[in-house]
Amino acid sequence: MSHLRAALPLGAFLSACLPAAVHAQTPACDTLAVASDPATSDSLYPPTLADVQIPSSGARMNGVLYVAQGKGPHTTVLVLHGFPGTEKNGDLAQVVRRAGFNALIFHYRGAWGSEGDYSFSHVLEDVAAALRWLRQPAVADSYRVNTRRLILVGHSLGGFAALHGAVADSGVRAVVALAPGDFGRRGERLKDPEAFMASVRRLAPQLGPLRGTSGQALAQDMVDHATEWQLERYAHVLAGKRVLLVAATRDAVVPLGEVYEPLAAALRQEGARHLTAATLDADHGFSNSRVRLARLLVRWLCSEQ
Fold first, then answer.
1. 222, part of any domain
2. Rounded CA gap, 229 and 182, in Å?
3. Distances (CA, A) of 95 to 177, 195, 298
4. How far is Cα of residue 57 from the mean position of the Cα atoms in its chain?
5. At how many degrees (to 10) do helices 90-98 and 290-303 cross?
């Protein structure tokens, strides 16, 4: 490289090293995006980052929208974080954008500075609010959003919310659940008083970034919706959508037998034709498998194009 620099004028050297500027839309999907920057750069429609506020029941939720390069409109992925949201999966949002998709990360009401009060019930409502916001013509035009191609991708609580969001919204035809919990099943277990109090104690240390809630309120929320929230009840709806279900084999928070195995079995029983189920040798946060997780996600997303 030092020889090349000596042989070329500075401008020519930089041109040889930097991606060429173009004015055409980039390819719709790039499976090399996990480890590579785009080969070309669109100078008219570059990738951008936007701080956004999303209304939900009179409160404003803080979010970041990663806008892909190219004129679009782009398929847009909503990346839903778990409880309380320490792992926000920003690495996945970046990879998704490099692959040619928009990605939205937002914080539910009462979480991480968003207005309002936090609850698991509100999380489900907030996902619906984010979908409505993205479909607004002014928002879609500003951020190059394809409103007909919105995909929910959630981890843990976010995986639970993504699956419920896909059930509730017929316009969402594809959903990804990474190590999802089932807060309906947990609610059934919490009907036992000892289990209820044990859950309150487990939840309490995680409430720092949340407001308007308590361990007892969150546990009661699960009990109150125990029947309504159980994921297997909606297998017949999810079977008609494209579903990527990913579990971690060393998950101590949501073991394989708690959600992944029974939900995958229920979807197959309902005749799901577009189910992809996979496991990674990892913990609940896929801590040692972020690249493998990103590669799996991008390949699946590209197959949706």
1. no
2. 7
3. 17, 40, 8
4. 21
5. 40
Rounded CA gap, 13 and 28, in Å? 30
The answer to whether residues 104 and 80 touch, using CB atoms and an 8 Å cutoff, is no
Structure pTM? 0.90
Residue given tokens 């990804």 in the structure block = 176
Tell whether 201 is covered by a domain.
no
Could you tell me the CATH number of the domain that includes residue 282? 3.40.50.1820
Phi, psi (deg, nearest 5) at residue 38 = -55, 145
Beta bridge partners of 42: 22
Spatial distance between the Cα atoms of 168 and 124, rounded to a whole number of angstroms: 10
Look at residue 39 in the predicted model and tell me its pLDDT.
85
pLDDT tens track for 225-237:
999 999 999 999 9
Render pLDDT for 131-144 as a digit per residue (tens, 0 to 9): 999 999 999 999 99
pLDDT recorded at residue 51:
98
Residue 202 lies in a domain: no
Domains: count for the chain: 1
Place of tokens 């806008």: 67
Residue 301 CA to residue 305 CA, distance in Å, equals 7
Question: DSSP labels for 215-254?
Answer: HHHHHHHHHHTTTTT-GGGGHHHHTTSEEEEEEETT-SSS
Query: What are 166's two structure tokens?
Result: 């896909």
Residue-range definition of the domain harbouring residue 251: 2-182+230-303
Is residue 135 domain-resident? Answer: yes
Q: How far apart are alpha carbons 142 and 256 in whole angstroms?
A: 41
Q: pLDDT tens, 154-166?
A: 999 999 999 999 9
